[in-house]
Design a protein that fits this description.
Elements (H helix, E strand, L loop, with lengths): L11 E5 L3 E6 L4 H4 L3 E7 L2 E9 L4 E11 L5 E5 L7 E7 L3 E8 L11 E8 L22
Antiparallel strand pairs: 1-2, 1-9, 2-3, 3-4, 4-5, 5-6, 5-7, 7-8, 8-9
């Protein structure tokens, strides 16, 4: 993998130019979502929390974080791997940009007109908190299937 791969650029935020969508890379997320990535996609006012799973050959998987309501009324967050992805793509990256070509949107999460997503990197300053309310303040609960 290239040294420019987003997963190797800790404490960075990658903001999409085409949609209200970002993801961050930080070791701080690992204990919560078992991934170094955390992000949010805001489509039509609905926010979906995600992890971004980078695979071999430039493949990338955008997977939702599900909230499970426990019998005692508490909630627990988890990432469901396998076929629970929202959409799939292939990425090319440079030092400050990651371009994702969407190759599988069969679940219809994105509008069919979206074929490419361009993410621009910025650093997360050491003094800045990572995404406020991570996993704690839910704006959308996705059903566990």
């Amino acid at each position: 993998m290239s040294k420019h791969h987003p997963i190797f650029q800790d404490n960075t935020r990658w903001t999409c130019e085409e949609l209200d969508f970002y993801f961050e890379v930080s070791e701080r997320y690992y204990d919560t979502v078992e991934s170094k990535t955390y992000g949010q996609i805001n489509l039509n006012g609905e926010i979906t929390e995600i992890v971004v799973l980078f695979g071999h050959g430039g493949n990338v998987n955008f997977t939702p974080i599900y909230t499970i309501e426990l019998k005692n009324g508490a909630t627990e967050s988890s990432v469901k791997y396998g076929d629970k992805w929202l959409f799939l793509g292939r990425c090319k990256f440079s030092a400050n940009k990651c371009v994702v070509t969407v190759f599988n949107n069969e679940k219809g999460f994105l509008d069919d007109s979206i074929k490419t997503l361009t993410f621009i990197k910025s650093d997360i300053p050491d003094t800045e908190e990572i995404s406020p309310g991570l996993i704690l303040q839910r704006t959308r609960r996705l059903p566990v299937a």
